[in-house]
Every structure is written in structure tokens, then in C-alpha cells.
């Protein structure tokens, strides 16, 4: 019975063992999958922490160390691009990943949600970095060829990150590119070790697809940027270079585009319409024209400011110690030396430089817009051929893709570019208006300070205007009195101002060469401003050669000034009318020949000299202003008083002072106080014919 019972119990034990083995075999795969899942999650978090640490080293240590070196040939912005933005996003993303560890059962769902939340930010920052990564590698390669720069870079790496063993900046620069491409792989590994029945499985699938789409968008953006970089460069080609580029293919392509454009304008073939792009381009062209107009106006404004600063009234020597004239001089000096130079400097820094930078920024998009039109014409031509033949060549397919890439890039980038350009343009205009307001306030403040020091500074407005009227009336009366005094001065033959010997000889020579009817007198000072123009003083005698210049202009006359010949304004000349006198003076050369002159010069002093017609110049010197003598060597003058100039300079040869005779008194007076005026004919007689 015992043996039978033992035989019966043995099958039950065997069944139990088989059941336990089957359960163990079922549990082991689940444990392995769960373990692999945990390891994949741990790998995601730990590698993200290591990545953030390395980016922090790159930004805070390596870049900062290179900035302190201030190497002019090192383009830090081109090397590190928008690493700061990547670091900012990655730090926040890492905090979110670490926070999921506390939610054990919902960790996978939280990780999936976190990727969905950060996908747009990641795409924004990483596509900019990846698009400029090739440029950064080119910079690194160029720095390798420069021993000095390469030595500085290696010294920086050894000083900041010696534990990494990095021998080049590319060790760190490639990390963001590798990281963004690894996110779909890490998520896929977690997904592989997650049962399909798990609640987080659909969310993980969505996260994998989202990060894969992010990488696809980054690659597409990078391709668009490469196309834009190829076509948006403004080429400055010479005529020879342009001819060198011509070949049968380029001529055929340009001819096809031109004929297609003509057919568009003639309405033979319809244009490809893109409302979104057309609106964006219209706004862009508006920005371009606005920047061009503002740049032209600012340049004109600067030109006017330069012309305004040319006169320097504060440098004029005023023989006035104090009073409004000196206050105005101080005010003008403050404006010219302080206010306007500072304003011009601020205008250049806050308006001109940003405006020029904005204008340079527009060149690239302008080239791209122009190239898009060319590629659109090619695209329409290829599309038409494709509809007829059913297929296109590889090159034609590439041309179509180029147009689509340029169009997609412009549609995506022009809105942001237009918005940024308009904001910058608005800031420039605001800066210009602010500068104008500050200038007006500064000038007004200084003017008020000067006004307070004047006697009428605090005078009521009615009293001020009454004072102005009285002052003007008094000045007018003084001016009328001076004019009347000046007009009533009647010169007599005795007080006429004779010419000095040198002037006599010059007038004699002019009369002998050109005749007395060709002589003219300068009525006011002439300063030659053009080639062949003469600079003459008031009262000089010249002879007319031609009453027209080389261009037929009758307002400029060609004259002989007794040696130099040139052009002078016709309005500053008046006919010179000599007065006949019985005193020996300038003898008319027509009355005696050169032989007779030589004979007369050797005649005895006692021989009587024949009475001949002589000519005295028809002008005299009078005092234009009153002058009070301040020393025994000077003589006083009254306005309008005739004087005789003895020497047009002082003992040192300075022409600022002249030696004159005034009513028998001799002394020096300022030359600028003397005026040469025509002699009026005495009443009751006239020149003999």
C-alpha cells in the first residue's frame, strides 16, 4: 500500500516541478525586459547630465578663456554659434528628466510628455546650430593652419579641460549635433523594452516620431540654408568676369527665362501665383525702400550739418570787451565746439551705423528674392515639359527642388526678417527723433543761460518788443545820418586821392595797351573761387579784354589786371572815368612816343615842360567808420572824412595799418576802416570832350 501510494504521489510532484519551471521561464523574460528598460532610461538621464556638463564647460570655461585672450583673428561667434540657447534648453530638459525618477510607475509617460513639450524649442535651437556647424568646422580647420592661433587654442584646452584629453575645439563643437540625433535612438531603445500592452507604449511611440520629425526638419532647414548661402551672396564681377562666365548653356538658360518673362507680361502663359509669398515680398520691398529713403535723408542731413558747421563766428576777433556780441560769441563757441560735435558723434553711433548695418542685412534676402524669380521661371518651364513628356532629367529635378527650397525658405524666414527689420527701423527713427529733441533741449538750455545774463533777460515781453523797436528806430536814424553825411562829402580837386607811382605805371600801361575806354574799376572786393578767376581789391583798375567767358556766360568778364589775366564778375565792375587836370600827372601815351619820352627824360631841368592832358583817378579814400586814436602814433577819424593814404602799411610792412594824412595830421589808422569810393563830379562843370 505504501509503495502504491508513493507511486501515486510521484506524478503529482513531477507536475508541480514542471509548473514552477514554466512560470519561471515566463517571469525571466519580463524581468530582463524591465531591466533593459530601466537601463535605457538611466542611460538617457546620465548621458543628458554628462552632455549638459560638457556644454557648460564649453561656454563658461573654454569660450570665456578665449574671450579674455582677445584674439582679433578668432571668430568666437562663428565657432560657438547659439550654444547659450542650447545650454539654456538642455538644463531645463535635464531637470525635467531627473524629476521623472520620483514617479516610478508613470516615469515612461512623463518622459514621453517631456519630449513632446520640448520638441519645438529643441528644433528651434538645434537647427540654427546644425546649419552653422559646417562653417564652424571650416574655422577650426583654418585655425589649425595658423600656428599662433592653434597654440592659443591648445593652451586654453589644457588650462580649462585637461581631463578630456581634447586636442581640438571640434571635440566639443560636435556634441550638440550628436546629441540631437541620438534622442530618437535612446527613445527607441526604451520603446523596444516596453511591452506593447503597457499604458506608456503609445506615448513613447509618439515621442519617437516627434524627435525623428525634429531631426528631419533640422536636415531640411540645413539644406535650405545651404541653398540660400549659395545664392544670396552679392557678387561684384567685372565686365571681363561676366563675359568669361558666358557659354552656350548659360545663354540658352537666360534666353529661356527672358522669353518666359515676356510671355508672363503678355498674358500668353499664366503666372504661378503664391499669395503668401507675394504678400511677404511686398512687405519686404517696402522695408527695402524705407531703409533706402531714410539712409539717403540721413546722409543729406549730415551734409547739411557739415555745411552748417563750416562758418565759425566764434573765431572772429571782436574789438568789444563785453556785451551781447561777446555773449553770442561764447554761445556760438559752445555750440560749435561742444554741442554739435557730440550730437554728430551720437548721430553716427545711434543712427548711421545701425542704418548701414540694416542696409547690408537686406542685400542677402534681396539676392535670394531675385534668384527665386529666376528659379521660378525654370520651374514653370520644367513643369510644362514634364506634363508633356511625363518625366524629367536628374538635373531638371534638381532645379525644381532648388526652387522649392528657396521658396520654402523665404516663406519661412521673411515674416521674421520683416518683423525684425521693421522693429530695428522703428528704433532707428525713434533714436533720430530723440537725438533731435535732446539737441533742441540742450541748445535752448544754453540759450536761456546766456539770456539771463543780458540786461533784458527778465524783461516782460511787451517791454522787450518796445525796446527792440526803439533800438531799431535809433539805429535807423544813425544809419540815415551816416548816409547823409557820406553823400554830402563833396571832393575838391585839391583833396582828390592820387595814385601811388606803382599804380600810375600800371594804369598807364593798361591805357597804352587797351585805351581809356576799356578801363574799369572794381566796386567791391573779389575773391576768386574757380580756376582762372582773379582776386582783386576794391578800387583796383583793370582793362576789359572780353565781355564773355569761354562758355558764353556774359556775367563773367575776362580782364587784364596789369599783369595777371583772368575772369571776374561783371556786376562788380564799373567804367573808370578819369578826371582831366592841369597838374603834371599820368601823361597820355598817345601824345608822345617812347623816343620822345626818352628825349624828355634827358632834357635839362630848366627846359619848360609842355602842358599835356593828364588823368587823375576818379576815386578817393574816406573813413568808413569813426576811429579814436589810442597812442601818439595814431590819428583820429570821423566817418566819411576824406584822407590821404601815404603808406598802405606800417613800418614792419603789415597791411593791417596804414599811414594817412588827415587835415595836416599824420598817423596810423586800421586799414579796414578806410573805404575807396568814386569821386562825384562837382556841380556846374563837366569833363571836356
Task: Explain briefly what this protein structure is.
One of its GO terms (cellular component) is cytoplasm. The chain has 689 residues and is α+β, with helices and mostly antiparallel strands.
Walkthrough of the structure:
The protein is α+β, with helices and mostly antiparallel strands and 689 residues long. The chain is 62% helix and 9% strand. The chain is built from 17 helices and 13 strands. The protein has helices at residues 2-69, 76-80, 83-99, 107-144, 147-160, 170-173, 175-192, 201-231, 239-245, 248-266, 275-309, 324-361, 363-389, 394-452, 461-488, 501-514, 594-601, and strands at 519-522, 541-546, 556-560, 565-569, 573-575, 579-581, 586-587, 614-616, 619-623, 642-647, 657-662, 665-670, 674-678. The strands form 3 sheets. A 5-stranded antiparallel beta sheet has the order 4-3-2-1-5, covered by helices on one side. Strands 12-11-10-9-13 form a 5-stranded antiparallel beta sheet, with no helix packed on it. It has a 3-stranded antiparallel beta sheet with strand order 6-8-7. Strand 11 (657-662) and strand 12 (665-670) form a beta hairpin.
Largest sheet: 5 strands, antiparallel
Shape: elongated
User: Which residues form runs of ≥5 with pLDDT under 50?
Assistant: 1-11, 490-496, 579-617, 681-689
Distance between the termini: 186 Å
Strand content: 5-15%
Tally the helices.
Answer: 17
Percentage of residues assigned to helices = 55-70%
Radius of gyration: 48 Å
Structural class: alpha+beta
Keywords: Guanine-nucleotide releasing factor, SH3 domain
Organism: Otus sunia
Domain BAR: 262-460
Region (Disordered): 580-609
